[in-house]
Amino acid sequence: MTAQTYRPDELPRPTWGALLPLCLTVFAVLVHGSAIGPFAKEIARDLGTTVPLIGQVSTLLLGTMAAVGLLAGPLADHYGHRRIILLGLGLLGLGAAIMGLAPAYPALLTGALVAGAGAPIMAVTFAVAAARYAGDARRTALSRIQAVQTSGSILGAPLLPAVAAATVWRGAYVVVLMAYLLAGMLILRGLARDPHRAGRFTPRTVLAAYRPLLGDRRMLALYGASALRAIGWMGPFTYLGAFYAERHGLALERIGLAYMVASGGMFAGNLAAGRWLGGVDLRRAFAGTTAILALCWAAVFTLPLATPQVVAVATAASFASGFGWIALTTLLAAETPAAAGTTMTLNGSAFALGFALGSAAGGLLIGLGGYALLGVVLPVATLVTALLVWRPRLRLRALPGHGAPAVTQAAHDIDRP
């Protein structure tokens, strides 16, 4: 493994300045991800295709991200996190340029494919934080990076349409490309050079990287929970705008505002987790917030709530999701038997797969039985996620002299397969 290591007495602190290169990287990727939705109609018109086909661009990007992520983690652990982040930023920038200049639909798909190959670096940024920090500092670092990532979707929604209004939709990709260039400069200056790695990278290297994870039933349960949670979280969230329009009669501007409020709930949940999870059983925290998420979505889509109530409950769901995600990523970093890059990128692939399946399942359920069926089936899947992770015997204690949460050895051994 090539990540830089530290003695306990010299562990760095996760200040905002130290985290800036990582934060800007994930922020730029989320802004890029926000560039399709607001312009789907305009892009379809300019490229002579349909809005549903434009929607498949995001599906292709997510699918590519999930597949390439399986290789990106072992690559990052073998060659170094800094190298792979820079390579990913290059691919993302190239993908943004192709998408912005696309003369036809196939070129747009090509750009999404290239960008999807670079997108797994989001998980590698979390791996950098997981490898560099420990205990409370690790949780704080992960929560801050995730909060900035969330802010990318919050700010991307109004920022890119404003740029497009002054130019055209292609101008939004110029902003995305500039963000990637700036992120690359900060990574070059802010992250230490990776040490030279001896030996070749072969298929056997990939298998060796995943072997500890595949042999650990607790970790497999966490990855399964991550994918199921993504289905239950993103499935309803994807169709929330259509629900606002069809059931509550909101105009596009008000739908955008409602989305921003809900995303703000996730941002708050990310930051709150960084402050409140110290000394808490992370499995119970994840399971509890995941159950709250499920109940909130069930209420939104099945109960006769007024519009302000729906927005409030959706915001509560987002808060629970943001809080639970930090609990999950911190838990993965604390319990993994493998290297950080492989651990985090596998989680990113699980999330991307769940996102794609959730979007597809949500559309199918709405077609079969309307929003009420979506509000029953996907929350049930989310409750299964909570049960999958709940381990009452797991406890946390502080490491002597460091105040860092750790699993007590007795309970840890009991839960081992």
Automatic annotation (TrEMBL):
This is Major facilitator superfamily (MFS) profile domain-containing protein. It is found in: Cell membrane. Keywords: Cell membrane, Membrane, Transmembrane, Transmembrane helix. It is a multi-pass membrane protein. GO terms for molecular function: transmembrane transporter activity. InterPro entries: MFS (IPR011701), MFS_dom (IPR020846), MFS_Efflux_Transporters (IPR050189), MFS_trans_sf (IPR036259). Residues 18-393 form the Major facilitator superfamily (MFS) profile domain. The keyword Cell membrane applies. It comes from the Bacteria. GO terms for cellular component: plasma membrane. The chain crosses the membrane at residues 16-39, 51-72, 84-105, 111-135, 147-166, 172-192, 220-244, 256-273, 285-306, 312-334, 346-366, 372-390. PROSITE patterns: MFS (PS50850).
